[in-house]
Design a protein that fits this description.
The chain is an alpha/beta fold and 945 residues long. Mean pLDDT is 87; it is low at 1-9, 389-394 and 620-658.
Length: 945
Amino acid sequence: MQTPADRQDRHEYPAHWEADVVLRDGGTARIRPITVDDADRLVSFYEQVSDESKYYRFFAPYPRLSAKDVHRFTHHDFVDRVGLAATVGGEFIATVRYDRIGADGMPASAPSDEAEVAFLVQDAHQGRGVASALLEHVAAVARERGIRRFAAEVLPANTKMIKVFTDAGYTQKRSFEDGVVRLEFDLEPTDRSLAVQRAREQRAEARSVRRLLVPRSVAVVGVGRAPGGVGRGVLGNLRDAGFTGRLYAVNKAYPEDLKEAGGVPAHRSVREIDDPVDLAVVAVPAEHVPEVVAECGEHGVQGLVVLAAGYAEAGPDGRERQRALVRQARTYGMRIIGPNAFGVINTSEEVRLNASLAPEMPRPGRIGLFAQSGAIGIALLSRLHRRGGGVTGVTGVSTFVSSGNRADVSGNDVLQYWYDDPDTDVVLMYLESIGNPRKFTRLARRTAAAKPLVVVQGAGSAPQGHAVRATRLPHATVSALLRQAGVIRVDTITELVDAGLLLARQPLPAGPRVAILGNSESLGLLTYDQCLAEGLRPMRPLDLTTGASAEDFHAALSRALADDTCDAVVVTAIPAIGEASPGDAELAEALRSAAAGVPGKPVLVVHVELGGLAEALSAAASTAPASVERGDAHRPAARWPAAPQTRETVPPDTSRADSRLIPAYPAAERAVRALGEAVKYAQWRREAATPGKVPEYEDIDEKGAARLIDGMLARGQGLTLGTEETCELLGKYGIRVHRALPAPTPDAAAEAARTLGYPVALKATAPHLRHRADLGGVRLDLADEEQLRRAYAELTELFGRPEELRPVVQRMAPRGVDTVVRAVIDPAAGAVLSFGLAGAASQLLGDTAHRLVPVTDREATSLVRSIRTAPLLFGWRGSTPVDTPALEELLLRVSRLVDDHPEVVAVTLEPVVVASRGLSALSASVRLAPPPARDDLGPRTLPVY
């Protein structure tokens, strides 16, 4: 009799199980199935495992594997017996296997849904999180093969392995018998297991980026002997920045006796460097990069910055070259920034890294800056540099990453690093593409809850060098979803910098109330109008007149900040001429001193051609200046009285000298736009602190809906449901659709009306007339058969034969506001719920709001109110307000349906007539299909572009 272990493989090699993962220390490993070709690797791996680890694995001394063991551990059917290995440099560093068992603990096949699992990790790699990553992947494989539960037997002394199982977050059962700990746990992901997985993901990816940004040693590969060239330039930038670690110049063309190049030790190969190298900057042509990568990998380099071009941006051949580069680097456990990258910068005094093409080190600061494009990176660094000393003094950069083609390290990875980076207070990102929108939205929501995240998102197609998954969502929809996640979405790099200036040092406003004061009535009124346009609530501007002194500005700003009805202050200033006009430094100190008295409210300055004031405002905060460098050099320095104290007044933050530097803007609209974004972000932060909940409804029949869906999908891979099936499925979630009866003839229409009861509506449902009441394809309030027959004749006379019109009869619903509710599953972004008013006007204006599924009760409330035409729902111009609670409940039920059943890939309810009491869904459509893969619910993997 043949046992399961004796059978030949029943499945082809499952290549989709292969994955690259980031380990706990930031290094990478490749996970793949074990095959018959791995016998030698397995033996070599086992020889490097300590006797203690072998004892823990086999519960007895087991110095070497027998030929039978090697055969058993390398021959799998990929169903009942599966083995996975974690590899670095092509060699095994850890293995895991499962064997399906029956109720008696013996080998079995399906339908048995339990398996025994066992791990072995090389001692040199223990503590790196290899076993945890392997557990995630082998659990996903087991679920795919119909296994729902793992069992593991562990010696009590093997505390590390017990911790791997107990910390994973799965529902488990633990017992102790015959000196062995037996663990049993379900493989269905739980909220806790997902939370554990994402916390591990954040720590690992953050550390992988830290290895690139905080190296102790850097080798620049491709440094020429003579001045000039990219490699020589980067080496010079590193040296000039004062990099605190070791530097090496590498070029295989160096003569053997050359000991130094560019003022640092020179080597012909990375292999020749005696000390460890953390980071290599690769500045050689693309055709020579593979050789360099191999040298770096064999030497143990942790990460690469590849400046070379000629990859995916150059076409199909370059794209394949780029994929090969990533595969090669990850084989050695290295991560890559680039190729075609501009470089990385870290201004920390402990690092002072300028491994980029930027000739000057940016000013140190607390802004994290990410740009995919080198050209945009140059522009952003240039703007921050120009305005850094002349506007706020807080525009300095903590770290900068330009990822180029972002073949490996992406904005998601850098967000993971900045999330808990103590040196970064504000994150600015220019994104030409988003490789994994679902993950980016998740990370953005978490980051935005801790620190501001400002994003410019390219509106066009992704650059040729960026391989990204397609999304069917319009650009405006993606932008709306980012805003829902707390992202401050701006349209230009000017707005990106403007918002960053305000958020870097000024506190968030408590509300939209804005005080305006200054020495120009016209500029004050312009600021007032701009505040109204941004949805703020400005107070009447206070005109101090052109003769206002620095003392006048100080007193007015102090009063405004002390006012409990004010949340922010905009100060407008124009050049003044005359003996009494304040000098720039004096006015700046007056404003700074007043602002320091009430540090909980933001202050902005709108200045017109006042370069001196802008620079003075950015100077390091201090007490009154000992001398005035600008303006009247003979005027004594002013000493400012303490600001009036209010209950909200707290001592200013003096932990940093520039803690109350005031951002200044050359135009009112730019200042107010930045303030408006800060107000909206502050409101999001307050709401995110107390998130809503996804309500439960007792009348929802989730299991019944699942049975319906399974039965319908059995008929085909993708189908649009008929009217009866749609109504039945929606009914399982308490969504009632107004009944409509077909009317192929006038007599059928009359019979349908008698069945439904008068008054009725007669509608043409042909695709070109559906939902187009403006074309005349709908007749309402037909009170009797005579009116119905007359309307039927009119429709057929106007639009053609009944078979072309597809007329239906429907009982009249209560009058109200016509709306549209939609849900769609996008392969890149996930499930999205949309809402808007019905009609051509809303469609032309794009007045539709969106939320990611699942939608909470608070999000449903905001969804209804976030469209521009929302006043029509709340009694605009004396109309009767409609039943918005019923509308919000409908949105929540549709969200639940799509979230519970990912096979429901599209739902449309149009129109939904919302009356003063209740609502009526007059038409509905549902599309089913096999659900798209959810990479956010699977094991941790690095993307492959």
